Amino acid sequence: MEDEFTIGYVDNLASFGIIEPSRASLILTNKRLIIVYIDSTNSFFASVMVENQFGVLAEGMVNRISADEIKKATRLILERNLDDVINADPRTIVLDVNDVQQVKIDRRKITIITDKRKFHFKLANPDVKNKQSDTYDTYVDFLRTTLPNKVIAKNP
């Protein structure tokens, strides 16, 4: 997308499926919110991890990776062309910032509300729950940069 730049990300989102949780990261740009699934069914993610960290995936399923590995994978994905990332997995969700009505976030969960749908995720990064860490505040700052006046953040 022309004149688009990345502001930051919220990593280690979890949603619960029928069999097991799905892991995702929310990439924030000045124009879009992009929810990228980071698990064994995302071949683009797997290729990025194998290319940059050969052998990490050999031990088991990607969706059993640690929070640190998801954060690292998210950073590696951000080095790619975002349109390639979006097109690589049909589950990727792309939201125009103008379509987002509100984002509610606390140390346990994040809800993104558009005029058509709500997206609910658990914040699975253990650093978010640690009040001594600035991870949660960084997430809120990224969200407020992308969506000024649309973020409701609770600091329990």
Task: Draw up the topology in text.
Blueprint (H helix, E strand, L loop, with lengths): L5 E11 L4 E9 L2 E6 L5 H10 L14 H12 L3 H7 L4 E4 L3 E6 L3 E6 L3 E6 L2 H4 L5 H12 L4 E3 L3
Parallel strand pairs: 5-8
Antiparallel strand pairs: 1-2, 1-7, 2-3, 3-4, 5-6, 6-7
Name the features.
single chain, 156 residues, eight-stranded mixed sheet, 8 strands, globular
Describe, in plain words, how this protein is organized in 3D:
This protein is an alpha+beta fold. The chain has a single domain, classed as PH-domain like (Roll), CATH 2.30.29. 29% of the residues lie in helices and 33% in strands. The protein contains five helices and eight strands, in the order E-E-E-H-H-H-E-E-E-E-H-H-E. The chain has helices at residues 43-52, 67-78, 82-88, 126-129, 135-146, and strands at 6-16, 21-29, 32-37, 93-96, 100-105, 109-114, 118-123, 151-153. It is globular and about 35 Å long. Residues 45-64 have low confidence and may be disordered.
Topology, number of strands: 8
Side-by-side strand order of the widest sheet = 4-3-2-1-7-6-5-8
CATH superfamily name? Pleckstrin-homology domain (PH domain)/Phosphotyrosine-binding domain (PTB)
What name does the CATH topology carry? PH-domain like
Beta-strand content: 25-35%
Q: Provide the succession of SSEs.
A: EEEHHHEEEEHHE
Provide the low-confidence segments as ranges. Answer: 45-64
Q: How large, in whole angstroms, is the Cα Rg?
A: 15 Å
Structurally, how many domains make up the residues? 1
CATH architecture term = Roll
- Sketch the major β-sheet: 8 strands, mixed
- Using the coordinates above, name the CATH class: Mainly Beta
Name the average pLDDT. 80
The best one-word shape is globular
Query: What distance separates the N and C termini?
Result: 37 Å
What's the total helix number? 5
- Helix-strand makeup class: alpha+beta
Q: What percent of residues adopt helix (DSSP H or I)?
A: 25-40%
